[in-house]
Write a structure and sequence with these properties.
Blueprint (H helix, E strand, L loop, with lengths): L1 H48 L11 E9 L8 E7 L2 E7 L6 E4 L3 H14 L8 E3 L11 E8 L4 E7 L7 H19 L6
């Protein structure tokens, strides 16, 4: 009888063992399936949270404006490049003319180059005002202003009369903008008046 009991006990233990191993396998499969679902959800969330970068990435500069006026009359005294209604607009105003706006194809490139100048010349460190005290004898003095708005919220607004900040920032910026402004005027002669 003892052999019979031992045999039954072995069979029962074997059945219990296989039952436990089957349950363990089922639990493992369920656990793996849950992990896979969580991974898929995480991937979906990660994909939707990361904004799609457009192929033509916008630079970090939203607007740049330069104004300069002296005694001589000029077809261009104020220039502004800015994003407006999803496009980049170049606005030009002369000393004796109204402002004209042009939608330009190379606007992002101009903004990118302007931002490089701002960063290289440390223009964000400019003072808000520059002036030279004189005895009033200057007859052909020049006044200027410069503004920039960056996409990260920083901005710059500076102006001067017969005095300028150190460095080549304003010269480089005016060259960049004046060259493009005069090209726009040449391409659109009816708007020069």
């Amino acid at each position: 009888m003892t052999i019979f009991r031992i045999t039954i006990l072995v069979v029962v233990l074997a059945m219990l063992g296989s039952t436990f191993s089957v349950e363990a396998k089922v639990k493992k499969r369920r656990s793996t399936a849950k992990k896979e679902k969580v991974m898929k959800k995480t991937k979906k969330v990660t994909k939707t949270q990361q904004p799609q970068q457009p192929q033509d990435q916008q630079c970090g500069l939203d607007m740049v404006e330069y104004y300069s006026q002296g005694m001589r009359m000029s077809p261009v005294s104020q220039m502004r490049v800015e994003r407006k209604d999803g496009k980049v607009v170049f606005a030009i105003k002369g000393t004796t003319t109204d402002e004209k706006e042009y939608v330009i194809d190379d606007g992002e490139q101009i903004l990118k180059e302007a931002l490089e100048i701002i960063e290289q010349e440390k223009m964000l460190e400019y003072q808000s005002s520059y002036s030279r005290k004189t005895s009033g004898r200057i007859l052909d003095g020049e006044k200027w202003s410069f503004e920039a708005k960056l996409a990260d919220g920083r901005s710059l607004s500076t102006h001067g009369s017969n005095a300028y900040p150190d460095g080549k920032g304003l010269n480089r910026m005016s060259k960049l903008l004046y060259e493009r402004a005069y090209k726009l005027l040449e391409d659109n002669p009816q708007q020069k008046k």
